[in-house]
Specification:
single chain, 117 residues, GTP Cyclohydrolase I, domain 2, 5 strands, 35% strand
Length: 117
């Protein structure tokens, strides 16, 4: 299946399990692969026939701003559910990285796949 890509999307959100993390925004960096057949959009050169990566990115930024979770796992799961519901995405791979959470690591995080390709 073809994929629409969103790479290194930076969002700021309240995320973390420790008390001090509940009062600040921290950056998460997201990579997404969204399965869709791009041929109808390419045939007609029509944005409405594909997944609009600009609209999806904007929705993700808004989701991060309006929600607050402890675990990156919860952020990933809830975001994936919202995206699949609102944008009719059959399958997605979502990587959520939390840079700076572990000083000795470039980033830590999770990668999930949901749906059927
Ligand atoms: N698997 C996870 N481990 C940890 C998480 C997490 O979300 N998933 N979170 C933390 C803390 O919030 C940490 O990021 C603070 O630096 C620790 N481990």
């Amino acid at each position: 299946m073809d994929r629409v890509l969103i790479e290194s999307l930076a969002v700021d959100t309240v995320i973390g399990v420790y008390e001090w993390e509940r009062h600040i925004q921290q950056r998460l960096v997201l990579d997404l692969e969204l399965a869709t057949d791009i041929r109808p959009a390419a045939r007609d050169d029509d944005l409405t026939l594909t997944l609009d990566y600009a609209a999806i990115s904007e929705r993700i930024v808004d989701f991060a701003d309006k929600h607050s979770f402890g675990l990156v796992e919860t952020f990933a799961e809830r975001l994936a559910a919202m995206l699949r519901e609102e944008f009719a995405i059959a399958w997605l791979r979502l990587t959520v990285r939390k840079p700076g959470a572990v000083p000795a690591a470039a980033a830590v995080g999770v990668c999930i796949e949901r749906g059927e390709c």
